[in-house]
Each structure stands twice: as C-alpha cells, then as structure tokens.
Design goal:
The chain is α/β, with parallel strands linked by helices. About 40% of the residues lie in helices and about 20% in strands. The protein has a six-stranded parallel β-sheet with strand order 1-10-7-6-5-4. Helix 8 runs parallel beside helix 9 (about 205-215).
Length: about 250
C-alpha cells in the first residue's frame, strides 16, 4: 500500500495551494508518499508537474485536466491507473448517470485506465444501496471508496471492501462527527463535519477497513482526507498518519 493525502481540505483551509513543492515536502516529512490528484491546465503542465513530484520523491494517483478527455489522456500518458467518474447531483436520473459513466469507462479502457466512482454525500451515488446498484450497472467502473461519506449515511465500508475488492481503485480514509443530529437524513451533510481518524462519533472503524483491505490483498493508494480543518492541517494529518501506524 501507498499512503497519501487527498488535499481538498488543505485547499479549503489555505484558500488554495500556493506552493506545491512546500506542501509536498511537509507531507513527506510526516510520512506521506504523495497526494491523489495533480491538476494541470495543459499537457506540458501535466508533464512538468509530474517531473517536480518525481524530483521531490513524491507521487500521485491521477491527473485532473480542464476536461474529461484531457484527464483521461494525461493520466494514461503519465502511467497512472484511474480518473474519477464525474460526480453529479442527486437530481440526476440514475439510469442516465449509469449510462454516461459506462461511456466514460469505455473511453478509459481504450487508454488502459479505469473510470472510478467516488461515493459522496449529496451526489447521485450516496447510499450503500445506490453504490451497489451502480457497481452492478457499471461493471467497467472502479471505485474510489470514501469510508466516512458512506458510513455517515449508514453504509458499511468494510462490507464494500469484502464484496468488491476487484473494484477498488483507491481509498479515502476519514471520520465523521455528528454535530447537528436535528438536520435529519434529508440533510446529512448539514448534520456534522469530517474529522481525523478515530475522532468521529458514528462508530466508523477505519482500522477494520484497513484489516479488510489487507485480507483481500489490496495494494494500492490509501488517502487520508480531512475535508474540514479547524487548525493547521499538518497537525491533523500527522495525527491521522500516526493513528494508522499505531
């Protein structure tokens, strides 16, 4: 396994990423091997960014370009394994979404990579039933499994790992803290916030997820993700990395 950071929450805290080399050096210093996505505006930019990561002894899993076609081609050209299936709102018809995901997956297969769904609250694929329906209807697609997004809507990430090991493209590990239970099931994302590993209150056992991953022979990226930081992100990320080590 390789351990990295899905750095969305760092960008929320700082406002943006202003110096990727400084960020990568600090992440390497606390035990991470890379970040999930390189964002590039051109093929030259993608190549230059990949070279900078290599020089720093860091890596990444996928490349996000200005459009889906560029993302697919640049990710393939850089020797990476997957791109995200484009997330859509819950208003999108399920059949339409699955049809479009299959089209994306077929395009990815022509380039030797995978189109992987990221399950996410408030998107078309939110609940466990929806996720399993998607995986059945879109057998060409992989999965960027987010443990807290699934557990926060009463899903079981351990069961997903054990049932669909061949679908796992990468893993997002985080936890969920309910702060406003009155929000109800129709407004799950308003009912709490994401937090460090072991600091949630919904009974999510990320260590059980890790054990299941080892049991099924998973050997790819594990990304710790803190969507919401209330202090210096490097403190939070180090604590979560140490949590896994211990």
């Amino acid at each position: 396994m390789k351990f990295g950071v899905a750095d969305y929450g760092m960008n929320v805290w700082d406002g943006a990423c202003y110096d990727i080399e400084e960020r990568l050096a600090k992440l390497k210093g606390i035990g991470f091997e890379g970040v999930e996505r390189v964002h590039a505006v051109s093929a030259d930019d993608a190549l230059h960014r990949a070279a900078r990561y290599k020089r720093l002894g860091m890596d990444f899993a996928t490349c996000a370009g200005p459009n889906p076609e560029s993302s697919i081609q640049w990710t393939a050209g850089l020797g990476k394994a997957y791109v995200w299936v484009t997330a859509v709102s819950r208003d999108r018809d399920m059949d339409t979404f699955c049809r479009q995901a299959r089209a994306q997956a077929e395009a990815c297969m022509r380039w030797g990579i995978t189109a992987a769904l990221h399950n996410h609250m408030d998107t078309r694929i939110e609940t466990q039933d929806e996720l399993e329906h998607f995986l059945k209807e879109c057998p060409q697609c992989g999965l960027v499994l987010d443990t807290a997004h699934l557990a926060a809507v009463d899903g079981d990430p351990v069961a997903i790992v054990r049932r669909y090991p061949d679908k796992l493209s990468s893993i997002h590990l985080k936890d969920w803290l309910v702060t406003n239970p009155e929000a109800g099931k129709e407004r799950r994302s308003a009912g709490g916030r994401f937090c460090g590993l072991g600091k949630g209150n919904i009974g999510l056992d990320n260590l059980a997820v890790m054990k299941a991953l080892k049991d099924v022979g998973y050997d790819a990226w594990i990304f710790i993700e803190h969507d919401t930081h209330l202090r210096d992100p490097f403190i939070d990320l180090k604590e979560s990395r140490d949590y896994l080590r211990e």
